[in-house]
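Issue 218. Parser rejects a valid record. Input:
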Amino acid sequence: GVAIPRSFGTPPLTNVAVLYGGFPRQCAHWLGMTVDFPQPAATSLIERKPYTMQLILASASPRRKELLSLFHIPFTIRVADIDETMDPGKAPYDEVARVSRLKAEAVPHEAGDIVIAADTIVVCGGKVLGKPRSEAEAEEMLTMLSGRDHQVMTGCTVLTPSGSRTFTEVTDLHFRPLSRQEIRRYVASGE
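Output the parser choked on:
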């Protein structure tokens, strides 16, 4: 963990920028600091100890784990067990943010911990594409995306001792036309 005094507070969330996948880019400088409490006076009967916060990644995603590991900051993975179903009557932009917030709030954490959660969806032609449940569905999705523009939306929530911030990052992408063989080979790779 990272030791900070209770009076120190937390850094402002305005320093948070997003990498693809919904992760903070500029938080390493403030999450990596260690500051101890002032030494108590000799007459004090109470021993003051530094508060140790944990950085918690609320995700089972190997890619998100890999991205956060790039900062060389210790973190714990806790997977949220929530219903990730999105309301088709609401804007995908808002729904992906809502799901990230639910994930962050669902994982066990202490009041002083920092929790990072994210959820990513693909939107093509107004249709939200979730995680494929089979190889056949993955092939169908890649066929739909082939040669077309689409959006990747990542909702990200960061919970800190001073509050929370939820935001959505949108990336516009274009898939080049893919052959049937390329689609099958990609699906078989398991990525």
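Fixed in the parser; the record now loads. Residues 1-41 have pLDDT under 50 and may be disordered.
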